[in-house]
């Protein structure tokens, strides 16, 4: 199989042509640096993404709290992670950096609050 991948590691945006089969990568062309090769290899063999979303929050000025994964998770787990995030409802106060869900779906990544919310009086 052949796939063109646009590298997002640096502003250059190299288009990397990757030839691969079920056993792995056969060849790669088009990257300008080692980081591009590493990015393309990861995209083919084990793609990951950071996830950003929000959870419901009670006793705060707003009704949702923005959250993100503390580390990238496998693309195959994104829908499972989102399903767990949708189930959560938290209480203010919440501090930026608080862990909302530890090791979500066994991915090794925590769901972390990205904003501070004081409790409403």
Commentary on this structure:
With 121 residues, this protein is α+β, with helices and mostly antiparallel strands. It folds into 2 domains: 2-46; 52-113, CPE0013-like fold, CATH 3.10.530. It contains 2 helices and 10 strands; from the N terminus they run βββαββββαβββ. The protein has a 5-stranded mixed β-sheet. The protein has a 3-stranded antiparallel β-sheet with strand order 1-2-3, with helices on one face. A hairpin with an 8-residue loop joins β1 (2-6) and β2 (15-21). The model has no long low-confidence stretch (mean pLDDT 97).
Radius of gyration (CA) equals 19 Å
- N-to-C terminal Cα separation, in Å? 60 Å
Q: How would you sum up the global shape?
A: elongated
Give the oligomer, counting copies of the same chain as homo and different chains as hetero.
single chain
Domains, number: 2
- Bin the strand percentage: 35-45%
The secondary-structure class comes to alpha+beta
């Amino acid at each position: 199989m052949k796939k063109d991948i646009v590298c997002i590691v640096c502003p250059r945006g190299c288009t990397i042509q990757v030839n691969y089969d079920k056993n792995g990568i056969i060849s790669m062309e088009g990257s300008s640096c080692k980081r591009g090769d590493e990015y393309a290899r990861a995209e083919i063999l084990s793609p990951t993404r950071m996830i950003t979303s929000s959870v419901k929050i009670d006793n705060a000025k707003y009704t949702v709290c923005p959250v993100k994964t503390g580390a990238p998770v496998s693309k195959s787990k994104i829908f499972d992670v989102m399903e767990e995030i949708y189930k959560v409802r938290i209480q203010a106060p919440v501090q930026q950096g608080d862990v909302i869900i530890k090791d979500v779906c066994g991915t090794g990544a925590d769901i972390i609050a990205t904003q501070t919310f004081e409790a409403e009086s």
